[in-house]
Amino acid sequence: MNRHSILFKVNIIFAVAVAAVLVIAVAVTMIADRAEQHRLFERMRGVMHVIPPPLWNVAPEQLDALAESHGLEVVRGDEKRRVLATAEQLRARGDDRRFAPRLRLLEAEDVRYLYYRDPLAEGLFRERAEPAELASLLPLLLGAVVVLLSILYYTVRKSLAPIQELRQQIRAFGEGNLVVPQENGRRDEISVLYREFYKSAMKIRSLTEARRLFLRNIMHELNTPVAKGRLVAAMVEDANQPILENIFDRLDLLIRELANVEKISSGNYRLKTGHYRVIEIVDHAKDLLFLDDGIDCAVTTETITCDFEMMALAFKNLMDNSLKYGHEPAIAMEEGRIHFSSAGAPLEHGLEHYTEAFVKGQEEGSGGFGLGLYIVNEILRRQGFGLRYTYGEGRNDFIIEKRETAATDQKEA
After folding, report:
1. pTM of this prediction exceeds 0.90
2. Which of 30, 151, 220, 278 has a CA-to-CA distance to 173 between 20 and 30 Å?
3. In 192-211, which positions are buried (b, 16+ CB within 10 angstroms) versus exposed (e)?
4. pLDDT tens digits for range 354-390
């Protein structure tokens, strides 16, 4: 069990409580036993102060009456001999030092006796009735406390049970699934939290569905006129044809990039990871750019573990940036890091500025929508990679690397 969990701490608390109850019970038993012994000695002292031991055999009737007045009974004859032969000595001294060497506390068959003996007299006494003391009630009290703690422990564990179910439902909700909650009727804080989570989850799901439906309708409504416009532009034969085709191509690219942003940022896309050669991902990225050549690629047999389609989209955007905002683009891989570099002026702002949505590069007229590096960063983040930027010797260098490697480099820096 996790030692940081609430259930573990509850178990520890109740275990300590039970142990404390047992320790207190033992301590109370010992204190009560000592008090009982002291009480018996005090009774005997009262008898001995009124009738000294040398007179016990002279006045037995007076001794019986006096012992009875102190709650004691004189034991004689066969019973006396039997008790003295089988009794276990519990204590051999009292509070009064004058009688301590001669007075002993004995126990036989769960009955306690006081025995006095000196050269002049002896006597054996026992209590006339069993006293209703705390020691006799202690087992009942201990049992009641243990039962009460057990009931309380069961109640607390039952109240904490929804935490496990809530954890499973939160995990399922994070994966896109939502199970309708069953009302348990309880009113404790955890049950209230359980219900509030489902209320919030239902609202989030409603908003997500509305957003998805809105984007789907927008994409459909935009794709239809763009497709018609591209068809019309292809049929126009004048000087404006290239301009029209460029406009509709840009609109089509914007729609596809918006679709990719929605797919990645919503978290609905399930990664299909595998082990792929980097050169194959580069070739697929070139196909997405309708690019035959123009990029110097020094990658050969190196491999990475990733989602092929998503990583190709990230490569495509980095290659597209190299072509739009620089010249002499190149791709290389060194020590597990993939470098996308190009000659040109350095970035005016930090990389974080350009990984925000709808932030364009340095050249406003270069044809971008400001989504390229945002999409790249989101794709890499979801697959455990990081994006880093350096500039040196007149070249911009965007580096893809595993997050562990990036963290190590930052510490060393």
Report:
1. no
2. 220
3. eebeebbeebeeeeeeeeee
4. 888 666 554 444 444 456 788 888 889 888 999 999 9
